[in-house]
Automatic annotation (TrEMBL):
Domain HTH iclR-type: 18-80
UniProt keyword list: DNA-binding, Transcription, Transcription regulation
Domain IclR-ED: start-end pairs: 81-270
Gene3D superfamilies hit by this protein: 3.30.450.40, Winged helix-like DNA-binding domain superfamily/Winged helix DNA-binding domain
Origin: domain of life: Bacteria
Name of the protein in its database record: IclR family transcriptional regulator
Amino acid sequence: MSRRGKPSHLNPEEKRGIQSIDVGIGVLNAVASFLRPASLKELSDVAGMPASKVHRYLTSFIRTGLIAQDPISGRYDLGPQALQLGLSAIARLDIVDIATRHMAELTAEYDIMSLLNIWGDQGPTVIRIKRSTENIFSSIALGAVLPPLRSATGLAFLAHLPEEMTKIQIDKGLKEAKKLENTGPKTKRELADILNKVRTQGYSTGFSLSGTANPSMSAIAVPLLDIQGEASAVICLMSGLTDLTDMNNGIAHKLIEVCKEASLVTKSNE
């Protein structure tokens, strides 16, 4: 009998599971272990399997959308279906429910667009959106990756995550910054100064998503911290009509307050 009092229809052979699925998960984990697209050889080494065997699994996963292959480099990365599964799993976390409620309240009270973000393999990733009547940022979609060094969200994460988690994105961002004008820090020293300020004031501001300073757009972001003081998520408010960094209008204070409350709940659950 099963625990629920119903007879189990699984025989000992079935209870052992399907070995091919176990092997396939190992291949997926190998892909996920890289913070960039990986070659077949790299995946074969990490998975501990012959390249020919790994390739067969990758081919099947590409058909399902779990894996995507760059047509030029031939390297492999997680595909759109993997992202969808990840977002579905994230949606089941308590921190997401808590933060989403706060986002809805902030958007309703101030009529300001709000984003909930996590740190993904590629950097700050949007997992929830509450839109305002402004609707001037309709191009932002679930799964979008924001510029780590040129967005309020990215700076909030960088200020509250260990360097080993963010080094690849920082190095890439600084390299890109040298080719752009007026888009934030261009050296590690400049970035360090900005991140120290973010930690001190409790919030960050950033540049437009296109990578150029936009005086008509205002963004402010505050992290939700876990028991180790690291950012579990970041809530970002965006507006083209309201200066969100003006401490006199109370919006920044409210965002800091709700994120602190959510952080305390998160810590108590760990």
